[in-house]
Amino acid sequence: MKLLVTGGAGFIGSAVVRHVVRATDWSVANVDKLTYAGNLDSLAEACTSNRHRHYKTDICDRAALDRIFREVRPDAVLHLAAESHVDRSIDGAAPFIATNVGGTYTLLEAALAYWRTLDADARGKFRFQHISTDEVYGSLGPTGRFTETTPYAPNSPYSASKAASDHLVRAWHHTYGLPTLATNCSNNYGPYHFPEKLIPLVIIRALGGQRLPVYGKGENVRDWLHVEDHAEALTLVLQKGRPGETYNVGGDSERRNIDVVRAICALLDEMLPNSANRPHDRLIEFVTDRPGHDARYAIDASKIGNELGWRPRHAFDEGLRATVRWFLDNRGWWERVMSGAYRGERLGLAG
Questions:
Q1: Per the count of CB atoms within 10 A, which of 67, 155, 304, 340 is most buried?
Q2: What is the rounded average pLDDT for all residues in the chain?
Q3: Is 135 among the catalytic positions?
Q4: Is the peptide bond before 279 cis (omega within 30 degrees of 0)?
Q5: What is the CA radius of gyration of the chain?
């Protein structure tokens, strides 16, 4: 199979590319414009493979996309390119609208034009798979889980832009017949996680003896999904999913934010017994909550389990331990990231 992957140098995208190169004989055309969150270092062994090629291209550039489709002639598209950080969307929504909405539209149009040039057999086998988030569903109360039929109720500029892109993908399937698939995932974690997100930010700040900011009282609940489990789910959906369908992907690992932060502190206490920062939980500092902060997300992943046979392999406690260890063992990777556009500052204060 020849894949065209957008956003393949990002956190989830790079995990997908690494998985494809490691576990299949597929080739990957990786379209990523390398924003602050895109990092070719995250591709590890993929960069040395002759089955991977990177195109430094913006998905809003239709002419460039058309050239890539003509050159690569992909059998499928995995669309992961997106602006993805809620706090950044609060500070400035324009890049989220441009990339997540405008870029998805442009990619759909390029894919549709290419798909129409294929013969009947190739058109039937082609897939356009869109990767989205559980945040489009809004906020849950203390009970219940998101299903594929939960009404959309996005509460941040980021989730609103992803909701719009989801609707575009659905429309291009129902209106034009483009064989699309969609997935909505819970919070990812694991190796190569960009340091603006909760888990890597806490690890890195704790290593530096810096305060560990926790929004509100830390009561917000998220379902955590290991990024390698997610990569496996995405390739399974690509091979076995039914066109026009959506599949929710979750880790069945709900945790309060404060419990995640304390678990990281306990792991650092254990792994760094001689650290001057022990006990690391003394660094926790409760700060003003994020505007419009959703209380709870939880994914019902029974559809992908029952229909496609997918289950997450990583239990959260073991996955978190391995993630903390990875950041301790790969200081060079995150130090290079932190020396660039992002330095751990507070974002998303909305003025």
A1: 304
A2: 94
A3: yes
A4: yes
A5: 20
What is the Cα–Cα distance from 17 to 145, expressed in whole angstroms? 30
Determine the pLDDT at residue 350.
52
Q: Which of 83, 87, 135, 294 is catalytic?
A: 135
Known active-site residue 152: no
Is the per-residue pLDDT at 300 higher than 90?
yes
If DSSP codes are grouped into helix, strand and coil, which group holds residue 294? coil
Least confident among 28-37, 225-234, 314-323:
28-37
Distance of CA 276 to the CA centre of its chain: 34
Write the burial class of residue 321 (CB in 10 Å: 0-12 exposed, 13-18 middle, 19+ buried).
middle
What's the number of CA atoms in the CB half-sphere (13 Å) around residue 316?
Answer: 19
Q: Using alpha carbons, select from 138, 268, 139 the residue that is nearest to residue 200.
A: 268
Q: Do the Cβ atoms of 45 and 73 come closer than 8 Å?
A: no
Residue 239 main-chain phi, psi, to 5 deg: -85, -35
What are the beta bridge partners of residue 213?
285
3-state helix, strand, coil in the chain (%, to 5): 45, 15, 35
Token pair listed for 277: 């920062």
Q: Which of 105, 158, 215, 297 is catalytic?
A: 158
Contact 18, 52 (CB under 8 A): no
Distance between CA atoms of residues 340 and 333, nearest Å = 12
How many Cα atoms sit within 13 Å of 240 on the Cβ side?
14
Q: How many Å apart are CA 201 and CA 330, to the nearest integer?
A: 14
CATH number for 2-193+224-253+296-315: choose from 3.40.50.720, 3.40.50.2000, 3.20.20.100, 3.40.50.80.
Answer: 3.40.50.720
Looking at the DSSP assignment, which residues form a beta bridge with residue 127? 76
- The answer to pTM > 0.90 is yes
> Which one is catalytic: 83, 134, 166, 228?
134
Secondary element (H or E) of residue 333 = helix 331-338
